[in-house]
Amino acid sequence: DGQTADLSDRPHFMDGMNGNSGIAVVHNSRITNETLLIFYAPARYNGEITGVFTGMIRGSTVEERLSDDTIDLQRVSYLLDRDGALILSTDPAASPGIDLVASLERSGGVSREELDKVRATLERTNGMEQSPFNFEGARGAGSAFITALKDADWALMQYYPSAVTHGLAAQANSAGMTLELELALAFLAYIIYIIVKNRRQKRRLVSEKQELSGVINSVTQLFSRFALVDFDSGTYEYLDGSGDSSNRGSYAELIKSFSGKYLDSPSGAESMSQRITPDYIRTHLTPDVPYLQYEYQIENNGPRWENVSILCVRRRDGVPASALFAIQDVTELKHQEAEIRLALQNASDAAEAANRAKSEFLARMSHDIRTPMNAIMGMTAVAAMHMDDQERLTDCLNKITISSRHLLALINDVLDMSKIESGKVTLSEEPFGIPDLVDSVVTIMRAQVNGKRQELDVRISDVKHEDVVGDTLRLRQVFVNILGNAVKFTPAGGRITFTIRELPSAVHGMAQYEFVCSDTGIGMDREFIKTIFDPFTRSEQSETKKIEGTGLGMSITRNIVRMMDGDITVDSEPGKGSTFTVRLHLRLQEPEAEDVGALADLNVLVADDDRDSCVSTCATLEDIGMKASFVLSGSEAVEAALTARNEGRDFAAVILDWKMPGMDGVETAREIRRRVGGEVPIIILSAYDWSDIETEAREAGVQAFIGKPLFRSRLIYALRSVLSPGVSAAPEEPLSFEEADYSGKRVLLVEDNELNREIARELLSMTSVEIDEAADGRDAVELVAEKPEGYYDLILMDIQMPVMDGYEAARRIRGLGRGRRVPIVAMTANAFSDDIRMARDAGMDGHISKPVELSKLMEVLAKYLR
Question: pTM of the entire structure?
Fold first, then answer.
């Protein structure tokens, strides 16, 4: 009826979802607002129950059948369940669901004996057994029958009201003919007997027909049509009344009408028209062959694929005299087979392409790995031949170091990709600052950028939340990969722009960031962009042939971004450069109150030849609560400062970009001091290392320096340092090995490899620190346990060691219960983020990956030994 209803609470639905089949009665259906008889069974797909098939019979349909009478005897019919509850009836006064047997008992019109007969009939399970009983109505006695139905937990009760009996008796009495009454009653009894008998036969036939119809219906769902062919008479008949020809007719004419419609016949010499001739079927459908089956394509309102099964119905002398043609439309199956074949072919092509890509990758990796290895081995041999030539020896060592780092980068990429593809990478959750992340990325990239005389411009836009939580190691890897590619594929003298922007976020406690890297490099065509994130993929342009790389960087980058629920996109054109955009949500740290009260309403002048940088800086100042204006050159800055002095509204501070055309920042500061005076604080803003000009700048009157990109926190810190007394200085940089002196400090070095232990000992001894050594974790635990508390100032712990690994050793040392916590730092080749997490979970305080970088080692020594 086009109705919908929620059946999730219906018992038959829940029973079907539990794997059961049955018949249920629904009163007051939500769909049709009437009684329904529900036939239900579970629907399964791939072994799982996905729903319930239901068949519904309207109560009105059943009531019409119940009231269908050949003789009008005012019969009333009731359909009951085994408990005596009313399902349907032809009595409009009866309410579905009432206990009809209990109602009969309460009425008092049926004797206890008769009621027992009714209940016994209800309890029968063999079906189609009928029990008559009598009752007393308001106008006399009446007759009724109750029948347990076969294959259903129902019973049919029918009665002829007492009014019928009373009417017959009254008619006989008025005529004064007792005999007529007896004959009428006898005739009535005979009629009832005939009716009951006919009803039984009818029910039995109906039941058998329903069973046969159910089987036929189930089978016919698989087939589009059936035809019965009589070879003796040469005729056919469509059993379902459908087909391209008439329902009955000459079989020879039927073959002729179809012969021109076959588009594709079975394999072999015979055509489809030949295979369905009587002679062919009689020859091939022998007693040993149960059926013939063919698949063919036919024109039937368009090209269709069909399958015909020919079964023998009757034989004469062992030869088929008639046969059943069961025809099935298999067009969709053929389409599905074609799709599966195509999918298999695509999978095969993809696997072949993957194998080819990996083979090419291994060949390329062999070349890329052997190149730095050749340099290392060659420079080692050259160094050995020039031991007395200090300059030549230093040059060889520098080249060995460069080649070693390149080889390490290749290995890291391969291992990282393998770890990502196996699903073993886990992301850490640690607090960090966006400025520190950007600084570390820029620091890593600065040498490569300077080496190609490129310009790296880092821009900040609307970054209001700098302190977040995430995997800073993986984020740094993402941006180093993207910027590294920009440097590689941008010619010398090109420009690379790295923009960090905070976007609105609809997620509470999270901030959305957009990182955009644009370059003026060689760009990519659209075909390569489609595969840039695939593993082992590299551009085949002539300009890229000599550029080193594994082809894994972008695949690793995309996987990391996706693991962080982020998104990465690329836009590029050949010869016009490329733009990579990464969008991420990062969880915010608990905000700390900013001490900017002393900066409110102060007026600041910004001078930078980059208008976008000026606008961004002024927006940050105004967001802090200050007033800001900008100029685009040093000369304009001098004039603006002089005008403000003459009008009695000196700037609270002047921020000057170091690199400006014409008059740079230092010259501008010197001119402001000369013409305006020494009261106005001047801050130099630079994207470069200002150490070479620091002395000159301070002599020119510069009081502070800020590095680009200009983050809000750094701007506040610099302004407070020049405008408010007592602001702490920036943290000290770690000393170099030549400058460090940690005399009186003691380090426990835990390392099972003797060569690695020797290297570490030599490096540490340069700082005058005292060194104890342990060859495995158990020795380390014993050394710490036997020494007094506070004996060691630092423990450098390897991880993979015999007897006891570094994780267990750290846990044992922490379990000693010492009051003073000795710092434990992992120094290991286990270099992935989950290795760092495991070290932290074991109680370690830090992590240095092998091969050890001297700068990282010095940072650890400076942190724990100063």
Answer: 0.46
Place of tokens 């002395």: 695
| Beta strands per DSSP E along 169-214 | none
Does position 551 have pLDDT exceeding 70, yes or no?
no
**Single-letter code of the amino acid located at 372:** P
Q: Tell the burial category of 608 from Cβ atoms under 10 Å away from its Cβ (0-12, 13-18, 19+).
A: buried
Write out pLDDT tens, residues 342-369.
Answer: 999 888 888 887 777 677 666 666 656 7
Measured CA to CA, the distance from residue 285 to residue 323 in angstroms comes to 10
Q: What are the CA-CA distances from residue 441 to residues 438, 447, 473, 480, 481 (Å)? A: 5, 11, 10, 6, 10
Which of 525, 545, 415 has the alpha carbon at shortest distance from 477? 415
Phi–psi pair at 548, nearest 5 degrees: -75, 155
Q: Give, in order, the Cα–Cα distances in Å from 706 to each of 597, 626, 703.
A: 21, 18, 11
Average the pLDDT over 40-45 and give the result: 89
Give CA torsion, residues 347, 353, 354, 359, to 10 deg: 150
420 and 462 Cβ atoms separated by less than 8 Å: no
Candidates 96, 32, 15, 100; CA nearest to 63 is: 96
pLDDT attached to residue 809: 94
Strand ranges across the sheet with 36-45: 22-26, 36-45, 48-58
Which has the closest alpha carbon to 412: 474, 483, 482, 358? 474
8-state DSSP, 504: -
CB 264 within 8 A of CB 297: yes
Phi, psi (degrees; rounded to nearest 5) at 394: -65, -40
